[in-house]
Write a structure and sequence with these properties.
Oligomer: heterodimer
CATH architecture of chain B: 2-Layer Sandwich
Distance between the termini of chain A: 40 Å
CATH topology of chain A: Thrombin, subunit H
Structural class of chain A: mainly beta
Number of strands of chain B: 5
Order of helices and strands of chain B: HEEEHEE
Distance between the termini of chain B: 14 Å
CATH superfamily of chain B: Phage minor tail protein U
Helix content of chain A: under 10%
Largest interface: A-B, 22 and 29 residues
Order of helices and strands of chain A: HHEEEEEE
Shape of chain B: elongated
Strand content of chain B: 35-45%
Number of helices of chain B: 2
CATH class of chain B: Alpha Beta
Strand order of the largest sheet of chain A: 1-2-3-6-5-4
Radius of gyration of chain B: 17 Å
Number of domains of chain A: 1
CATH class of chain A: Mainly Beta
Largest sheet of chain B: 5 strands, mixed
Largest sheet of chain A: 6 strands, antiparallel, barrel
Number of helices of chain A: 2
Number of strands of chain A: 6
Chain lengths: 98, 147
Amino acid sequence: MSGAFLTDDLTDLFQADDFASAATFGGSTINVIFDAEFIGVDVGGEVQVESSQPICYAPTSSVSSAAHGSTITIDGVSYTVTGREDDNTGVTMLRLRK
Amino acid sequence: MSHVRQQIRERIATNVTGLTTTASRVFQSRVYNLQATELPGLLVYTTSEQSERDSFISSNGLNRVVDVVVEGYAKAASNLDDSLDTISAEVEAALAADPTCNGLSKDLALASTEIEYTGEGDQPIGLVRMTFSVVYRTTATAPTSAI
């Protein structure tokens, strides 16, 4: 099947001993790739506020029920889902807040 | 002796220091980013000033109106709007209690309030920007002395 390698390789991509971390979502343990890069948030004032932009990538099949307001725990920190972006090739990015 | 505008800004910063929500996290004319540990906090600026001749008291008198901006920043997962309104209430009450800025100004009044929110970052962040119009007088030759 055309593009099958995309889904075939997802398991390897999300191995916890490589780039992924174990997370708890919907009562299940899943593997996600977590990132929280620095951002300076512009609220419209004279200065920016230092913060981070937590996101995680997961196999779409692992987070199929994820929606705004869902909770996911990564490395012991509980996050609320504020955005969901499916790439339609089997990977979903969740935007998170503490 | 410093410009009366500076004296007013410093007096206002003093008057808003120690409030319940923002405590000692008060910064004058800040240009660098705020850290998470500095929230909720206040920034105090003097952003613009209008002046005109006022010969009623002195032949070279200047009647001045300086805009003093107090920005309140807060970060919270919920009730951010309530936090910003609480900050507003505390700042407004503190400044209204000293409308002459310890004798430096003739009047002080809240001129406008703007509120902003953003969902960027690891928690929502909000800003309330209060602009106070402060009326004071000097002579043209002695801007360091209020008259």
